[in-house]
Amino acid sequence: MSYILDALKKAEAERSLGAVPNLHAQPFVAAPSADRSAWRTPWSWATLAILAAAGALALLQPWRAPVPPGASAPMPVAPNPPLPQVATAPAAPAHTAPPVAAKETPPPPPARVKSVKPALAEKKPAPQPVAKVVKESKPAADTPAANEPPVVTLRELPESIQREVPRLTTNGYIYSSNKADRTVLINQKLLHEGDQIAPDLTLEKLTPSGMVLNYKGYRYRTSY
């Protein structure tokens, strides 16, 4: 260890020969070689550590760039003022409908499969002939012709015609849905539809409640 310290001191002394002495420069002092046991005390170890640290600082000092005298410390940059925070009202929570509990539908019962037995073919009776029933067609209801004058009562005829109409006496009548079977007995004379009762007086039609007569083109109805 002492040899290393001596070498460091010699190197430091050689470096400081051509340089201007400064505060960090240490004078070279040759250690006595006679008594080496004195360096082995605790104080000697502390001194060696201080010297080694000073030598290391001296070796690193030339590598530092000198600070120019006119250089000043950088101006502190003022931080930007914080922007004012705009307080926003919290959004009202949307009213949500409570969840509807889904009703569990019970599974449908399994369909029962019934075994179908093949039905025995039954002998069907032979169809019997059906007698055709022919219905007699009813005669169409008598509709008055469009050009025929309307049917009125005897009192609605002109007075001159009322005085000319002969007096009639109905003795009986037969009304049927068939025109050929309709008959009336007037003044003891059996008449059918279309027969002439008296001069200029004709029996036009028989109805369930009376008859329609025609006198000189004037049509009127009268009861039996």
From TrEMBL:
Residues 85-104 have a biased composition (Low complexity). It holds the Pfam family T2SSB. One of its GO terms (cellular component) is type II protein secretion system complex. Residues 70-84 have a biased composition (Pro residues). Residues 70-148 are annotated as: Disordered. InterPro entries: GspB_C. Residues 165-221 form the Type II secretion system protein GspB C-terminal domain. This is Type II secretion system protein GspB C-terminal domain-containing protein. It comes from Noviherbaspirillum cavernae. The lineage of its organism: Bacteria, Pseudomonadati, Pseudomonadota, Betaproteobacteria, Burkholderiales.
